[in-house]
Amino acid sequence: MKAAKTSGKTAGKAHGAGIGPVIMKDILTAQRNEITEHHIYERLSRSAGNAQNRKVLKKISGDELRHSLFWKSYSKTDMKPDAFKMWKYYLISKILGITFGLKLMERGEGNAQKAYDKMSKAIPEVKKIEKDENGHENELLRMIDEERLKYVGSIVLGLNDALVELTGALAGFTFALQNSGLVSMAGLITGIAASLSMGASEYLSTKSEGLVEGGGKKPGRAAIYTTATYILTVMMLVAPFLLLTNIFVSLAAMLVIVVAVIFVFTFYISVAKELDFRRRFAEMVAISMGVAGASFVIGLLVRMFLNIQI
């Protein structure tokens, strides 16, 4: 009888008894996060066109539901999903890509790791949940097949070249021409010609890679991604010279746009590809601004030595 009573106490402690209010609050938070993520993955799996992606998302959705039920065995409470978070990450995933949306969601849960460490002292089984979250789910996310990430090299090529080349060209034109209309015209001609040239180079490069390695990318599609990214960047950088009258204010606005574009794109790639954001961002800004500064000086020298007045 005594043994039975002790066993009952142990079971009670294992499922909520003896757990303090602070730990219980963390349990409820974890439970809500898991049930919310279950619904996000479930909803994305239903709308996924790719059978492989559907299978992966369904598997992670089931894991999240299982984790939620684990926490419920301690909380003894039904938790509703966070509707705002659910729609937020669902829409981000649909607009910017499943891989980016879901990795951004997982990345935003750094505080959960501290809570897990705290809870594992009272509930040893938490270590297995933590292991699932950090290892198994990340492995499954890497299995998602997404076209935009397959062609990310082509996008990076178009963006990097446009930023570096056109930032330099526009800075040089600013001092050489000192006329917003002329700078924007020269920038558009230079940028569009360069984008077509870059697209053609990417087509030939991807085709060669496919012949040598068997490739997985289509040359035409790779060229379109490179060209489209380049032209879009050209339009953004030339816009200040079309909209503003003061040539040097236009140049300053263009440089702000350069930094903003680098920030947004580097953040996207660092999340989707799990890369170091700060180092890549600093490197790209330094290169773009360095080229712009050098071109600015070259434009000034060309104007001085050729003694051209416009």
Walkthrough of the structure:
- The protein is mostly helical and 310 residues long.
- The chain has 2 domains: 15-145, Ferritin; 148-306, no CATH class.
- Helices cover 85% and strands 0% of the residues.
- It has 13 helices and no strands.
- The protein has helices at 2-14, 21-47, 51-75, 83-96, 98-107, 110-120, 126-142, 147-150, 152-177, 180-213, 219-243, 247-272, 277-306.
- Helix 2 packs antiparallel against helix 3 and helix 2 runs parallel beside helix 4.
- It is elongated and about 80 Å long.
Question: Can you give keywords for this protein?
Answer:
mainly alpha; 13 helices; Ferritin; single chain; 85% helix; elongated; disordered N terminus; 310 residues
Q: What profile does the largest beta sheet have? A: none
What is the CA-atom radius of gyration, in angstroms?
A: 27 Å
Number of separate domains: 2
> What global shape is seen?
elongated
Structural classification: mainly alpha
What is this structure's SSE topology?
Blueprint (H helix, E strand, L loop, with lengths): L1 H13 L6 H27 L3 H25 L7 H14 L1 H10 L2 H11 L5 H17 L4 H4 L1 H26 L2 H34 L5 H25 L3 H26 L4 H30 L4
Helix pairs in contact: 2-3, 2-4, 2-6, 3-7, 4-5, 5-12, 9-10, 9-11, 9-12, 9-13, 10-11, 11-12, 12-13
